[in-house]
Amino acid sequence: GLMVCSLAWTSDGKKLISGSNGPIRIFDTATWQQIAVLIGHSNSVNTISLSPNNCLLASASYDNTARLWNLDTNLQVGLPLQHENDLHSATLSPDGKVLATGCENHNAYTWDVHAILKEAGFDDSLVPIGTNIVSSIHQLLSH
Fold first, then answer.
1. Minimal CA–CA distance to 119: which of 82, 81, 79, 80?
2. Which among 44, 95, 103, 107 would be 20 to 30 A from 64, CA to CA?
3. What average pLDDT does the chain have?
């Protein structure tokens, strides 16, 4: 059976998104019909996080990657964000500019969403403009 690990509502309540040991699924809450499937992760998706404008979804998986998805097209944005080990958490900042991820290796990382989008050829419509966070990965926590 399908084990659902994480859920996120769009801010207007019109869509419910689920992460599971299968693909990420998007449901229309008016009909509860599945309206999209986001394919890419090769293992369970533990956590998902939505940007404030509902345009971007971040996901983290036991396949050692975090991924960003464009919810206008339901396609992956840029390359998978590779980590050393399984990922247990991913969350987009309240302004949608930074993705933080938590890894099995006891480290947390921050990723510059603006830089990822720019590299993937997107304009600024997906993310608020004006970020001063350096695009390199920072190790926040280390044991």
1. 79
2. 95
3. 86
143 part of a folded domain: no
Cα-based distances in Å from 120 to 8, 29, 42? 25, 31, 21
Cβ neighbours of residue 57 closer than 8 Å, sequence gap 6 or more = 8, 17, 24, 38, 48, 49, 50, 51, 68, 69, 71
Q: Tokens 């403009």, residue?
A: 129
Residues spanned by the domain of 95: 4-120
Task: Answer yes or no: is 83 within a domain.
Answer: yes
Residue 73 resides in a domain: yes
CATH code for the domain of 13: 2.130.10.10
pLDDT, one tens digit per residue, over 87-124 is 999 999 998 999 999 999 999 999 999 999 999 888 76
CA dist 125 and 107 (Å) reads 31
Residue pair 77/63 in contact (Cβ under 8 Å)? The answer is no
Q: Is 133 exposed, middle or buried (0-12, 13-18, 19+ CB in 10 A)?
A: middle
